[in-house]
């Protein structure tokens, strides 16, 4: 085997080299030459093992795995299933017998009969040993002297650390004085990005800065190079980096000069004689950890007051005088800080008193109210709402609070059709029924001063919703009725009982009469059957799926979030009446819609929540799946999943953790109390951030209201409109993510302050999206009309909106009949089951997207 022969030759040469090294060390360490026979006797253990060690290591490491197996096969080993470790162990054991080298025989052939050769080797080894000993001694002496220099330098540094800081402080003071006088201030921007150019504000104003750290946050106007994920980028530089560099360079120079002067000429000469080159300040710095002084000095400097540095900038540098001034300023600083801390504490206490006064006990649970509460607790589709509404219908007066406008409209129509006069009130419509004793409205329209015999609050588990939850809290705790019926899921029960306190409580628990069963096999679109409701999580996917099913001969109803409620109702009625056999919906189906659904089919098990795609939660799965099965129609509700059946089944059976917190938002009473302190809406948002919400509550972010406020901040709208009115307009419930609707809101606000007619909403009808936008635009217009009391005008626009809703209904059928799935990049046709909205070619060719940094 040629490869093994080559390795054997290398091992032989390497073994000879190791033996000669051993002989040299053995002979050189002795003043008198020892005999060859003595060497063989003394080093017998080493000589016995040296070949085996060298050969087994070389052969095992250098021979390929294939050749090892071939070698072992010849030794009758079965190597097919051997792992690497077992293979090497077997090979090492066998290869040791391959042409072993006789070390003693080799040595005898070289030295046994040649004493002059052994003597010559001794002379060489002894000279080499003595030379190495001399070099070791020099190294040791150099090392000891370096240790001395290091210790001397560190002692000097510790002793003179304060003087160094005083020198740096004076240099920084001179630079600060010059920077404040000669350089310009730039407007604030995000330092990580260079898309926005820096804008000059003007010269610096000294009084704007209390401490040096405040000034260090300003931009210098230069670019600063930073490393992000192993790549260099540029960002706008602050004065912190500039002063850090100045301190580092100054320390570098000061320490070098001072240390050389401290050591003196004698030590410099000694270093020269030992190392044969000059001792420099740079070499001294390499011996000590001086760079730690930079952040320490910078940190101390940032604590200084700007006025103190400007004072010493007017003085020449003299260390004793600088020390005296520094001690005085530190003493004064401590007093000043103590006073500042006292003032800060007083300010915080005043602020806390103000926060308590403004927000007060607005979010306390109700206790000891002599009022009856009836809780209807259970899963989806168990009849909770039906029983609560029956109680309300039988009462002399009643109020139904719905989570959705569609449900409020449904209850309004239901009660009137069953002989109970009922009015309707949502933000976008008001329908007065003559002689009405009952009212159906969305939960946000609840008014606590109106009283009723029975109030029904639906879907009360939504009290935990971060954006809308406070509407349920307010309704539950402020409901003014003889009986309050609260409908909720099981996990909300404990929280509701905590909120209603010691009131008279009756709890009705509901169980599904139609059990849920999960299909054992993954769902395929080829297996769609009448009575199925297919669930996906985007409007686009709903339309695509409906189009595909319609091409296969199904009659399809559709439901998605942006669909007008009237259109949604017509779609639902088609399915209920049997005019369509399948329904395709987003999770909008999960709340309040009771339909004759045989099977709920999840085409997706993930959804985009506004930030990222995530797996559905247990509550979401149960809320949607619970719509399957209906008493008297389907004795069993079936549920199917497109994938991840095991995970989804576990989510469906999982017991939800109890709701432990609920959302709170500012009330009108809170805003009234705020107005007694300030007339600045920006300050109100600031105080809301400072307000520490009670335990078990989560503050609404008010992010959408803040964004709207930023549009009008500092404008005529803020200047001329009463703050309370402005605040109420910020809360109008419309889609604030759509730029055109926000623009409409802003234009309407200007017309209000100018006492002009409200601008009519812009209507579009080129396609389905335009019609849906127009519906929302009219909805926003109606919000303003009802808020301003323009009911006659509102009636006209409600009719226009109804017409648009009809157009949406008609357009839906046309659009899905002609719909094709195409790549959004190149327009190429895609199959209906293609997982993405771009084709494979476009996906393959799309450029890598990187963060938008300026990179050189």
UniProtKB/TrEMBL annotation:
Residues 332-351 are annotated as: Disordered. The keyword RNA-binding does not apply. The lineage of its organism: Bacteria, Bacillati, Bacillota, Bacilli, Bacillales. SUPFAM superfamilies: P-loop containing nucleoside triphosphate hydrolases. Residues 365-566 form the Helicase ATP-binding domain. GO terms for molecular function: helicase activity. This is RNA helicase. Keywords: ATP-binding, Helicase, Hydrolase, Nucleotide-binding. SMART domains: DEXDc (SM00487), HELICc (SM00490). Pfam families: DEXQc_Suv3 (PF22527), Helicase_C (PF00271). Signal peptide: none annotated. Residues 517-670 form the Helicase C-terminal domain.
């Amino acid at each position: 085997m040629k490869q093994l022969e080559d390795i054997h030759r290398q091992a032989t040469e390497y073994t000879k080299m190791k033996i000669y090294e051993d002989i040299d060390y053995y002979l050189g360490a002795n003043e008198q030459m020892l005999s060859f026979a003595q060497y063989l006797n003394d080093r017998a253990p080493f000589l016995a093992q040296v070949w085996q060690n060298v050969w087994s290591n070389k052969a095992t490491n250098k021979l390929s795995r294939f050749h090892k197996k071939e070698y072992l096969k010849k030794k009758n080993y079965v190597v097919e299933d051997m792992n690497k470790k077992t293979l090497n162990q077997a090979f090492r054991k066998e290869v040791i017998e391959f042409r072993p080298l006789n070390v003693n025989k080799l040595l005898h052939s070289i030295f046994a009969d040649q004493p002059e050769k052994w003597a010559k080797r001794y002379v060489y080894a002894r000279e080499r040993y003595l030379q190495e000993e001399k070099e070791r001694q020099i190294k040791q002496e150099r090392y000891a002297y370096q240790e001395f220099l290091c210790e001397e330098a560190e002692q000097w540094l510790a002793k003179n650390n304060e003087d160094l800081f005083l020198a740096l402080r004076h240099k920084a003071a001179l630079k600060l004085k010059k920077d404040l006088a000669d350089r310009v201030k730039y407007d604030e921007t995000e330092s990580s990005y260079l898309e926005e150019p820096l804008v000059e504000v003007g010269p610096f104003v000294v009084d704007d800065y209390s401490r040096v750290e405040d000034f260090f946050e300003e931009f210098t106007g230069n670019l600063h190079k930073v490393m992000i994920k192993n790549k260099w980028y540029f960002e706008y530089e602050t004065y912190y980096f500039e002063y850090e560099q100045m301190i580092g360079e100054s320390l570098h120079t000061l320490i070098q000069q001072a240390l050389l002067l401290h050591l003196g000429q004698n030590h410099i000469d000694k270093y020269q004689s030992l190392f044969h080159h000059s001792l420099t300040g740079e070499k001294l710095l390499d011996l000590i950890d001086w760079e730690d002084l930079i952040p320490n000095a910078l940190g101390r400097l940032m604590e200084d007051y700007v006025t103190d540095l400007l004072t010493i900038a007017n003085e020449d540098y003299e260390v004793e005088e600088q020390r005296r001034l520094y001690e005085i300023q530190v003493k004064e600083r401590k007093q000043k800080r103590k006073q500042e801390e006292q003032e800060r504490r007083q300010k915080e206490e005043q602020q806390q008193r103000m926060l308590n006064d403004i927000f007060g006990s607005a979010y306390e649970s109700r206790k000891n109210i002599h009022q009856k509460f009836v809780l209807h607790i259970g899963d989806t589709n168990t009849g909770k709402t039906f029983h609560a509404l029956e109680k309300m219908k039988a009462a002399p007066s009643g109020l139904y609070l719905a989570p959705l406008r569609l449900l409020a409209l449904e209850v309004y129509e239901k009660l009137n059709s069953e002989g109970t006069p009922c009015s309707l009130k949502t933000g976008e419509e008001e329908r007065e029924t003559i002689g009405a004793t009952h009212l159906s409205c969305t939960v946000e329209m609840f008014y606590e001063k109106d009283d009723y015999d029975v109030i029904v609050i639906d879907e009360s588990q939504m009290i935990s919703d971060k954006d809308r939850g406070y509407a349920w809290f307010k309704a539950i705790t402020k409901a003014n009725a003889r009986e309050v019926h609260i409908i909720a899921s099981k996990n909300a029960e404990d929280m509701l009982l905590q909120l209603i306190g010691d009131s008279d409580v009756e709890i009705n628990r509901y169980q599904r009469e139609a059990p849920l069963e999960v299909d054992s096999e993954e769902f395929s679109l080829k297996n769609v059957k009448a009575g199925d409701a297919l669930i996906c999580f985007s409007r686009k996917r709903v339309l695509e799926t409906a189009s595909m099913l319609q091409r296969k001969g199904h009659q399809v109803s559709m439901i998605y979030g942006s669909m007008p409620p009237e259109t949604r109702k017509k779609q639902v009625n088609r399915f209920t009446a049997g005019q369509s056999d399948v329904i395709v919906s987003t999770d909008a189906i999960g709340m309040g819609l009771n339909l004759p659904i045989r099977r709920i089919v999840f085409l997706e098990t993930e959804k985009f929540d506004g930030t990222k795609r995530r797996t559905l939660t247990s509550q979401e799965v149960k809320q949607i799946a619970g719509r399957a099965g209906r008493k008297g129609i389907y004795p069993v509700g079936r549920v199917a999943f497109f994938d991840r059946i095991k995970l989804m089944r576990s989510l469906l059976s999982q017991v939800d953790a109890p709701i432990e917190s609920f959302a709170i938002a500012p009330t009108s009473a809170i805003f009234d109390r705020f107005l007694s302190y300030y007339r600045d809406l920006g300050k109100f948002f600031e105080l809301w951030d400072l307000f520490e919400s009670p335990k078990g509550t989560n503050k609404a972010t008010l992010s959408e209201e803040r964004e709207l406020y930023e549009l009008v901040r500092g404008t005529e709208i803020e200047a001329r409109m009463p703050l309370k009115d402005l605040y109420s307009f910020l809360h109008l419930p419309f889609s604030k993510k759509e730029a055109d609707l926000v623009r409409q809101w802003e234009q309407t606000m200007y017309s209000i302050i100018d006492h002009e007619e409200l601008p009519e909403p812009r209507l579009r009808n080129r396609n389905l999206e335009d019609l849906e936008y127009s519906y929302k635009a009219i909805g926003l217009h109606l919000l303003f009309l009802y808020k301003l009391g323009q009911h006659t005008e509102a009636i006209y626009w409600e009719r226009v909106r109804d017409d648009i809703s009809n157009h949406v209904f008609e357009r839906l059928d046309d659009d899905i009949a002609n719909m094709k799935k195409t790549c959004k990049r190149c327009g190429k046709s895609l199959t209906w089951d293609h997982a993405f909205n771009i084709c494979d070619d476009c996906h393959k060719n799309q450029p890598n997207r990187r963060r938008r940094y300026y990179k050189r």
